[in-house]
């Protein structure tokens, strides 16, 4: 008999705005029937949700909040999480992975900042010249 695969050291991509999804967007994916798979990962700190969408191939999307797009949203209680998933994202099945680690934080998108204004360059006025005979 072979030992089950050890999934504790799964190499997940770091969580960043490029691979995070908000609750409203995930609800929309369920309504449009584009949700392929929903995975709950158990960590010592709590549980986080990973979604795979049909149109994105095997790319994994972490459920995050607007304030923290570089960290997956952690749920402390599995029963409450399950109730939330049933209500917000009704799917036939959910996969639970135990002994996972919280993925690393990815590169946040740089905030849009105002460019410091430098001295304004003044344009030289050009003189209009006319051809001889045109007035």
Can you tell me about this structure?
The model has no long low-confidence stretch (mean pLDDT about 80). The radius of gyration is 26 Å and the shape is elongated. It is an alpha/beta fold. It has helices at about 25-30, 80-90; strands spanning about 20, 35-40, 45-55, 60-65, 95. A five-stranded mixed β-sheet has the order 1-4-3-2-5. The protein contains two helices and five strands. Helix content is about 15%, strand content about 20%.
Q: Can you describe this structure in just a few lines?
A:
The chain has helices spanning 23-31, 78-88; strands at 20-21, 35-42, 47-53, 60-63, 95-97. It is of the alpha/beta class. The radius of gyration is 26 Å and the shape is elongated.
Name the helix and strand elements from N-terminus to C-terminus, one letter apiece: EHEEEHE
Helix content bin: 10-25%
List the uncertain runs. none
Strand order in the sheet with the most strands: 1-4-3-2-5
| Overall pLDDT confidence | 80
User: If you compute it from the alpha carbons, what radius of gyration comes out, rounded to the nearest whole angstrom?
Assistant: 26 Å
Structural class comes to alpha/beta
How much of the polypeptide forms β-strand, as a percent range? 15-25%
Distance between the termini: 101 Å
Figure out the total of helices: 2
**How can the largest sheet be summarized?**
5 strands, mixed
């Amino acid at each position: 008999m072979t030992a089950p695969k050890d999934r504790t050291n799964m190499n997940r991509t770091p969580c960043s705005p490029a691979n995070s999804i908000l609750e409203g967007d995930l609800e929309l994916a369920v309504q449009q029937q584009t949700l392929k798979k929903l995975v709950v990962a158990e960590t010592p700190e709590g549980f986080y949700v990973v979604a795979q969408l049909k149109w994105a191939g095997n790319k994994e999307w972490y459920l995050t909040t607007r304030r923290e797009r570089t960290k997956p949203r952690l749920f402390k209680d599995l029963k409450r999480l399950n109730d939330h998933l049933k209500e917000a994202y009704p799917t036939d099945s959910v996969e639970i992975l135990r002994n996972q680690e919280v993925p690393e934080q990815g590169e946040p998108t740089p905030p849009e900042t105002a460019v410091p204004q430098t001295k304004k360059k003044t344009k030289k006025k050009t003189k209009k010249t006319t051809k001889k005979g045109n007035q």
